[in-house]
Design a protein that fits this description.
With 155 residues, the protein is mostly helical. 90% of the residues lie in helices and 0% in strands. Helix 4 runs antiparallel to helix 5. The protein is elongated and about 55 Å long.
Amino acid sequence: GFFAAWKACKGEERRQLVVLSISGAALNLGFGVVIPALPVLSQELGFGATGVGLLLAAPSLARVMFNLPAGALVDSFGRVPCMIAGEMFAALGCLGTGLALSLNTMLPVRFMGGTGAALAAAGSAAYLADLTERPHLKLDCACVAFGCFFNFVPL
């Protein structure tokens, strides 16, 4: 389980897992915090139910469309640079969501945030896979990272 996997990791691996977990939590928390506000914001700006649906779907659509290309970028440019760039694009998407005053400006920034999330997630997954040379620890470390992520970040 989770605790056995944590115990099997070395000190440096644990530190890296904590950084990956915090990074993933911050990324998804940024998207999760926006979701409860979207219906109220959409009502105030007159988007309607369709607008809310589009705003909620835009980041997910971007992730589906860009997960595979993001993996290729991660292999070409490196794990950490892609994680940083992805987090920055996701942050800009969240900031743009808060500043946008129309559906036409909010949809592209929500999509951009999802694209950044795809890049950050691809970088994190590749980094996690590279974390250890011991094959049996790959699954253990993944369990720790994703266990931390899903236990501490509300979905």
